[in-house]
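[job 4417] fold queue: 2 targets
>>> target A
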Amino acid sequence: MTKRNEPMNNTYIRRAIALFVMLSAMLSLCSCSVRGNVTYSDDIKKVSTGNSGTEYHTAPADGYEQYSSSGLLKLFFDKKTCSIAVQDTSKGKIWYSIPQDENTKAGVVQVTVRGGNTEYVLNSQDNSVAYKTATYKKTSKGVDVTYVMCSSKNDPAVKVRLKVSFYLSDGSFYANVKCASLLTKAPDKDYVITKLSLLPYFGAEKTAASGDFLMIPDGCGAIIHLDAAGSGNYSLKTYGDDAGTGESGYKTALTGAFGCRSSGSEFAAVITDGDAVSDI
């Protein structure tokens, strides 16, 4: 859990949740889940899938091209990292899908694939962009990006094909995942996708200014002041535990929404589909 009384140091400001927020930039997400025979155990073998360094995980200073605009928002796309950025023109603030600060972890999307006690964690940057298997197509309102994420560059044991549509409409930013036939290759039929993270580093920054905050629906709702927050992760299960999977003990998010304020600009995010099986 995020500690509220320690300095932030060099940890990243991660995405969190807002309860009934009306802010300047609206982010709408469509999330999905794939169910199957999954073993929930502490004895999980995690398979390393490599690391491409900072080159593809860091938002470049130059390279983003404007692809669309709507209302007060502009959408930008970088061909090298296959990442997007959204500008709030009323404040001049740009929200990046991967941080501008050098790092080796951030990605536009991340997928966890599990079969029995073996787990693969793939991300768009290490397992697709670095392997040159990501493709994109400009659309009338934004861009469609297809990430073919492979567990290795040559003869991968696991391969996931994920198409994400990023676009602007009616002054809002949308990110939609096409959920059909995601897992295209696996060691056997028992392997399933257990988790899909869409834009997990959207708006991530290394430092926080006075007045920056996150809004989260923890109970009746709360504000975390980022300039006084500590490090750590904060996770909530939307609408509570899922009896169908056997998972329990999660903190509950009362709604599939969250928000953030940074450098005088704000956004609110709403999960428009798949919220019942989502984590925030």
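>>> target B
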Amino acid sequence: MSCTRCTSLSLVLVASILFSVLGAAITTIGVMALALPWARALVPGWYSGITLGVGVVILLFAIFGYASLCKKEKKCTLGLFMVFTIIVTALTVASTVFLFRTEEALAYADKVSFVNITDWELSAAMELRGGVERTWDACNANVVDLGAGKYELTCAATEFGYVEDAVNARCLQEDNVDIESVYKECFVSGSWWPAPEGVDPNDVEAVLNTPKGIFCACYSEFHQNVETYFSVGKWVSLGSSIFFGIVFFACCYLCCCSKSPQKQQQQQQQQKAQAYLARP
């Protein structure tokens, strides 16, 4: 077996293992998003269902990868695996572009206090807004004034205790929140998120008892939390794009250029037979 063929088969094996792990992980995430109360609040039901379906499909194609390594005539299963690989490559490239662009957009939106944002910044901010609004409603939140410029968020829904701890520790009780802080400009601006009617922007406690008020008081912390995942995810996505691109070319080589050991042996036997018959 040639070195190129051996390397190509090894890449297909590694890709199949990765697809198995990825499919199992995505399937688990989809099940958790449908089953856990706090996850149902953060993630739309249709998105969870799609995630579950994608995980199952990835597992099926991982099986095609394993089958292409085991079958003597592997062009059919390897062809299906190759098609899936190029789809995954395209998706990871798109994901890489999305993660890099979204990270830049959120950084710019944070810099301008989420005021008068447009285009890509607006799209990224709308995703944050949706998550804050769904979490606020599901947790049944309430904010009280503790004095000295500090406030406390509580959730009537006990399963959202982690939300209380994160918002209080990293935002409402870490720094003083007052009417002179930059949150006010964010709150009164209606360029992309209209301010709630009947809420006095000078009444900090009233403002913080709205989803937009919490967002405007803590948007930098929300951005930092999201950026933590994006800073890792974008490089993982880029590395995955390169790897799956290489796997695709390995599949092309195995389908179009490489001969299986069985065919090589048959060809050698035919050559020997022809040489024997050609003897005088």
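[job 4417] complete. Note on B: The first helix runs from residue 3 to 35.
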